[in-house]
Design brief:
Elements lengths: L2 H35 L3 E2 L10 E2 L5 E2 L12 E3 L5 E3 L7 E7 L4 H17 L4 E8 L4 H11 L5 E4 L20 E5 L5 E7 L3 H8 L8
């Protein structure tokens, strides 16, 4: 075989190796994105003056007078309705960020609904923020499967999450849960999936008048 005829073969093999490396790199990047997109144990929300002190259980709290205001949160819900969180001022609001694609969200869903049913007559309103679902179909199916009865704002691109003060939420930590006090300020947060016991522990201090 002449040198001229061998050259195209070497060129083809080199191109194949480069393509293979590119495919492997793309797969690794996609895997990394999937891991970061659904975290069950995150505790860091970035920098910012939010007043949070994080306990060993991953629940962060802020004292009265040191709490950031919750932003304006309103829009269309997963089931086609409308919700404005400002309408719930005077109540405690438990705000849960979730996605139907997220395993830890599925693990905690029934815990959230159980606690909601127990406390909704005590001046507590649960509201979800559904994120990264490209249509409402999977989100509606999620709510049906887990018997969720409280509303969820549909926020596929995460715009609502970005309204919070820096350091309040980490867009990479899904699920996340916040407690907004009766004055509309962020009193507690966790960036992990919640057991029923831990959710009650997070919420209980705000069910009675704070001292």
């Amino acid at each position: 075989m002449s040198a001229a005829s061998r050259a195209p073969l070497r060129s083809n093999r080199t191109a194949a190796r480069l393509i293979g490396r590119a495919v492997l790199a793309a797969a690794a990047a996609a895997a990394a994105l999937l891991v970061s997109a659904c975290s069950s144990g995150g505790t860091s929300g970035g920098g910012g003056q939010t007043g949070f002190i994080t306990g060993a259980d991953g629940i962060a709290t802020a004292k009265q007078g040191e709490r950031a205001d919750a932003p304006e949160l309103s829009g269309k819900t997963v089931d086609g309705g409308q919700v404005d969180v400002a309408d719930f001022k005077g109540r405690i609001v438990v705000l849960n960020v979730w996605g139907s694609w997220c395993g830890p969200c599925r693990a905690e869903a029934k815990n959230l609904e159980t606690v909601y049913k127990d406390v909704k007559d005590q001046g507590v309103q649960f509201v979800g923020i559904n994120t990264r679902d490209t249509s409402t179909g999977p989100a509606r199916a999620f709510e049906k499967d887990y018997g969720i009865t409280y509303p969820s704002l549909y926020d596929p691109t995460g715009k609502l999450m970005l309204r919070f003060a820096k350091g309040t939420l980490n867009p990479q930590a899904i699920p996340s849960t916040l407690v907004i006090d009766r004055d509309g300020k962020v009193a507690a947060r966790t960036l992990q999936a919640l057991s029923e016991e831990k959710l009650r522990k997070m919420l209980d201090p705000y069910l009675q008048p704070e001292k």
